[in-house]
UniProtKB/TrEMBL annotation:
Keywords annotated in UniProt: Carbohydrate metabolism, Isomerase, NAD
Pathway it works in: Carbohydrate metabolism; galactose metabolism
InterPro entries: NAD(P)-bd_dom, NAD(P)-bd_dom_sf, UDP_G4E
Protein name: UDP-glucose 4-epimerase
GN (gene name): galE
Residues annotated as domain NAD(P)-binding: 5-327
Entry-linked Pfam families: GDP_Man_Dehyd
Similarity comment: Belongs to the NAD(P)-dependent epimerase/dehydratase family.
Protein's organism: Algoriphagus aquatilis
Amino acid sequence: MKKILITGGAGYIGSHTAVELWNAGMEPIILDDLSNTNEDVLDRLKEITGKQFVFYKGDCNDKSLLEKICAAHQIEGVIHFAAFKAVGESTQFPLKYYQNNVGSLLVLLQVMKENGIHDLVFSSSCTVYGQPDVLPVTEATPRKKAESPYGNTKKICEDILVDYVKSKPGIRVIALRYFNPVGAHPSSKIGELPIGTPQNLVPFITQTAAGIREKLTVFGNDYDTSDGSCVRDYIHVVDLADAHVKAFQYLAEKGADFYDVFNVGTGNGNTVLEVIHAFEKVSGEKLNYVIGPRRPGDVVKTWADTTKINQVLGWYPKFSLEDSMRDSWNWQKSLG
Ligand SMILES: NC(=O)c1ccc[n+]([C@@H]2O[C@H](COP(=O)([O-])OP(=O)(O)OC[C@H]3O[C@@H](n4cnc5c(N)ncnc54)[C@H](O)[C@@H]3O)[C@@H](O)[C@H]2O)c1
């Protein structure tokens, strides 16, 4: 079986991707420092797949650990999820973000070069587009100045990859620009595990419905959108995980020194209020929410044009917004 190193593989998107890789006949080797997850995820992955995945607890910036992993396993590809992702925290501690998110990519590329590993899928984000001038967003849409150090780390990592591939190191790279990942595995055994107050809408919704949070604040209902609240493209995490499988299958057909980017979204925008109503519909719960003032720095509306990933990778999302809400709610309830 083709062995794929998944940095940050015990995290939200990484754990779901481990399942989809395994289902597609690839063996995930997981590296995670557990800074934003916990080791139980490995047991949960075994319950879903029947397989105890190889797991290394450690930091992706630790070159000697990466070398040890490569010496122990014939790694053929890498998915680099490992990063810090809290936008607000990144404005308080920018160096922490540059060190971890950019530093770990540099270490990883060196180790890949030294060990003859050619294929890399990199976790990028629609944050690189900022508030786009034209919607929907294609991959040719110009990137905007980053709104936060976190967003800037994604832009810088993309630029590093472009420059590196131009130097002809023999590698093949796909950067996937995720829109808004939501949902959980339909088994309810893995899902998003926010530490502290959730930064994202859907965990905040499910925690409010579960009584962990008192109420949800909708930041603004007077924007130029169908109901005045902000619009995002919410993609089910299992569909997103599948995009990584398709990316590896596509890379296998390409020659050396290849780089490309793909949007991963549904191609549809939904307002915050539509998400709340979809949640209420599938859960049967009445959500305690209030309308608050606009939040400075919020992108008003963005959603993906997915023509490229549909046509080139043959990837299409299978889950609806209602599916995402149902799976997120079941996951929340499974946490007790
Ligand atoms: N969730 C989103 O909304 C979103 C959107 C766009 C892009 N992304 C990107 O996708 C990737 C995965 O995001 P996620 O939502 O699964 O986040 P997550 O925090 O759940 O997963 C990241 C994992 O990486 C681990 N980690 C962090 N730094 C590490 C290091 N130096 N060495 C080893 N492990 C490390 C964490 O413990 C965590 O388990 C990140 O790169 C993130 O920036 C996420």
